[in-house]
Structure formats: structure tokens, C-alpha cells
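Structure first, sequence second, as always.
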């Protein structure tokens, strides 16, 4: 006796079952997480003695600020009053949404955030913010603001008033215009990676305290001469842009240690490049370079240099002086 088995139909049914199981497990996981994030977050001190709170998702965010508001009201319960008074002393607020289901990511903050006057560290990464409440501009003690991986298409002007800010991260957003950051004179680290910037404002020269500037993965075509005003800058990321030339003022970055310039359209480097005597790591792969300026031999501190995927026909003689150099010269047009 023979049985005719429709293996194709069985295969389709198996796939359907697997997809159903995957869907149900995802829904269950998100549902469980949503229940957890309904709970009022605990306010604790970390190992450094910093009073902080972790919030995961919009539901827990709403619950936190609702309790804060209740604690201020007339006739508030004793527990709410104590929680409110403790919350006003919070120094660090962590609202990272990386592990949160998409439909529970935070999209808005309560105006009650104005009560967190002691806050100096605010993390809002991996959420769905396209704006922030104006009250954030009143958090004058804020030193670190992290807004990585959100949906900002326009720079939030509330940030301009945060004059004690030292770290600002707006990477992985949708900014098309370079932000107005000239008032942030204490800023040491500015990250604007993976946006849609086509230019850098001359206002960048006002950031005299800047140590790190990350502008990788944009569409930047030119740098302003004011970039040379950043005398304390140690790390500069400009990879994956549309740069064809660099301004001579790049040589004024006398404290620069690390420079990312890979995946641009550079055809030459200015002679002033030889003034970067503190430079230790330089990555120039995937450009259109066929020569180096003679002054390149002055970069005595240089330890790592990548010239891969350029148009060099011969090993540039300028680098022979650099005896401690680790050089990647592969995939050029060597004769």
C-alpha cells in the first residue's frame, strides 16, 4: 500500500506554524515587559553614590511622572510626598529604550521633568523622540545629554540654554542642519554621527573646550576654516562624508591624536597637515589620494596610518622618516 504525501503543503504548514509561534512569543514577551514597565521605578544610589532612576518605556515613564505630580499636590499621601521629595534630588535619569518593544518606546516626556533640578546626567537613547519639552532648558545643572537613535529632524532649541553641558550626543537622528551650539562653551564631546548634515556651521569655532567631535556618516562636503579654532580637540571623526578638500586650518589642531577620514573623496591633503605633530592615528582609506605633502614627514608621533584603497602608484617617500609607523598600503595602483 502506498501513501501519497503532499510534502509541499506540509512544508508550507510548518512555516506557518513557526511564524505563528514566533509572533506569539514576541507578543508575549512585549506584553510581559509592558506589565513590568507599569511599575513605579525605584530610586537608588549606584556604587558611586549617585542618586539615579532607570525608566524603561513610555508606560513606566508616565507612571514615574504621575507619582511625582501626585506628591506635590495638597492632601498627597505620605508615600507620594516622600517619593516626590526624593525624586527632586535625582542626579541621573536613565531612559534608554534599546531593550524596549517598539510600541512602548518613549515618545514624550512630562513637563514635570522641570522638578528634577539636581539632574546632571540624562539618557534618552533608542527611543522615538522628535521633540523634547521646553522645561528641559531649565535643567541648568545638566552636564550630559544623550539623545542617540531617536527621530529628531530639527535641533531642539531648548538645548541652547544648557550652558553647563559637557557631553551632547545626537547621533543616529535625521538632522539636516548643523545645530546651533555656539552657546555651549563647556562642551567637551559632541556626537552628530549618522545624520543628514551637508555642512558644518562656522559656529563650531565657538566650542573652545571641545575634545571630541564625531561627524561620521553624514553628507558633509566642506569644513569651515573655524574648525582650526578647536585647539583642545583630540579626536575628530569625519569618515563616510563627501569631503574633497580640507581647509589649511586643519593644521591648527595641534592636540589632535586621532583622525578618521576614510570613505571620502579627498584628492590631496594641505601642506599644513604636517603641523599635526601630536597625531597618532590617521585613517585615510577609500579616498582618491595619489600623493602626500612633503610636510607629512613631520608627523613624528604617527603610529597607525591606513592608505588602503587610494590611487598611489608608488610608496610615498614622505613616510620613510616615520620609523615607528604601522602602515596599511594595500589595494593601491602600485606599478
Amino acid at each position: 500500500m502506498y501513501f501519497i504525501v503532499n510534502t509541499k503543503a506540509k512544508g508550507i504548514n510548518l512555516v506557518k506554524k513557526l511564524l505563528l509561534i514566533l509572533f506569539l512569543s514576541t507578543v508575549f514577551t512585549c506584553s510581559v515587559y509592558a506589565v513590568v514597565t507599569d511599575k513605579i521605578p525605584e530610586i537608588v544610589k549606584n556604587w558611586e553614590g549617585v542618586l539615579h532612576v532607570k525608566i524603561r518605556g513610555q508606560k513606566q515613564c508616565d507612571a514615574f511622572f504621575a507619582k511625582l505630580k501626585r506628591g506635590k499636590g495638597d492632601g498627597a499621601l505620605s508615600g507620594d510626598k516622600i517619593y516626590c521629595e526624593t525624586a527632586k534630588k535625582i542626579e541621573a535619569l536613565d531612559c534608554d529604550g534599546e531593550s524596549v518593544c517598539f510600541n512602548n518606546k518613549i515618545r514624550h516626556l512630562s513637563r514635570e521633568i522641570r522638578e528634577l533640578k539636581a539632574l546632571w546626567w540624562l539618557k534618552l537613547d533608542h527611543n522615538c523622540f522628535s521633540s523634547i519639552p521646553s522645561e528641559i532648558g531649565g535643567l541648568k545643572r545638566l552636564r550630559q545629554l544623550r539623545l542617540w537613535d531617536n527621530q529628531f529632524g530639527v535641533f531642539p532649541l531648548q538645548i541652547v540654554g544648557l550652558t553647563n553641558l559637557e557631553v551632547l550626543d545626537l547621533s543616529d537622528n535625521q538632522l539636516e542642519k548643523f545645530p546651533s551650539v555656539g552657546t555651549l562653551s563647556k562642551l567637551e564631546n559632541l556626537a552628530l554621527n549618522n545624520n543628514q548634515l551637508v555642512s558644518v556651521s562656522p559656529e563650531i569655532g565657538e566650542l573652545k573646550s571641545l575634545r571630541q567631535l564625531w561627524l561620521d556618516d553624514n553628507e558633509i562636503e566642506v569644513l569651515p576654516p573655524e574648525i582650526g579654532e578647536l585647539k583642545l580637540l583630540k579626536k575628530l571623526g569625519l569618515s563616510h562624508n563627501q569631503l574633497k578638500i580640507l581647509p589649511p586650518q586643519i593644521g591648527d589642531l595641534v592636540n589632535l591624536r586621532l583622525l578618521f577620514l576614510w570613505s571620502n573623496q579627498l584628492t590631496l591633503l594641505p601642506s599644513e597637515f604636517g603641523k599635526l605633530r601630536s597625531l597618532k592615528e590617521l585613517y585615510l582609506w577609500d579616498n582618491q589620494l595619489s600623493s602626500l605633502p612633503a610636510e607629512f614627514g613631520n608627523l613624528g608621533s604617527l603610529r597607525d596610518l591606513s592608505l588602503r584603497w587610494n590611487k598611489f602608484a608608488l610608496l610615498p617617500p614622505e613616510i620613510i622618516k616615520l620609523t615607528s609607523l604601522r602602515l596599511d598600503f594595500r589595494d593601491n595602483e602600485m606599478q
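Margin note: The chain has one domain: 9-328.
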